[in-house]
Amino acid sequence: AYFIRLGGCDVGCVWCDVKESWDADAHPRQAIPELVAAASEYPGRNVVITGGEPLMHNCGPLTKALQTAGFQTWIETSGAHPLSGNWDWICVSPKKFKAPLPEVLAHADELKIIVFNESDFKWAEEHAALVPATTRLYLQPEWSRAARMTPALIDYVKANPRWQVSLQTHKYLDIP
Questions:
Q1: Residue 89 contacts by C-beta under 8 Å, 6 or more apart in sequence?
Q2: Are strands 46-50 and 136-141 parallel, antiparallel or unpaired?
Q3: Which class for 69: exposed (0-12), middle (13-18), buried (19 or more C-beta within 10 A)?
Q4: Residue ranges of the chain with per-residue pLDDT less than 70
Q5: Cβ pair 115, 141 in contact under 8 A
Q6: CA 138, CA 112: separation in Å to the nearest integer?
Q7: How many CB atoms lie within 10 A of CB 159?
Q8: How do 46-50 and 72-77 pair as beta strands?
Q9: DSSP assignment of 17-60, as one string?
Q10: Which of 59, 90, 124, 165 has a CA-to-CA distance to 104 between 20 and 30 Å?
């Protein structure tokens, strides 16, 4: 997949690994045709829009242009802002710092919970009850605590097999 990271985030996770994305004004604006052209340089046809918090922006024109160019559009969002755009896949990764909107959770194809503490398993189950039964459920250890939390996460998934483990593969492969 080709990733487009939109600047700006008002969620403010203390453990965020891309805090540099929070200030939208700190990043140069790019025209939508430039973004589509950049994605088109690669053979993959999936584009993941992430952030920051991408739904702070009106994603409609971007998803329309990408889909017109033959791309599937995927989003990873906290769900704290209303949906905009036309999405082929919606990953909601809710955060405790700003609650997800029920109307976004209702459209989740994927629910990804970042596990920082053992109490996050209960929080994950509470949010799993708010998404459609067909939603894929993932637990991902917070990167700075992965060594500590991954064993507990694996044990939890073994005992609760509707959940799957998600890892930040790009970090293990040292891909920025």
A1: 72, 73, 74, 75, 109, 110
A2: unpaired
A3: middle
A4: 8-9, 12-24, 168-173, 175-176
A5: yes
A6: 5
A7: 9
A8: parallel
A9: S-GGGS-GGGS----HHHHHHHHHTSS--EEEEESS-GGGS--H
A10: 165
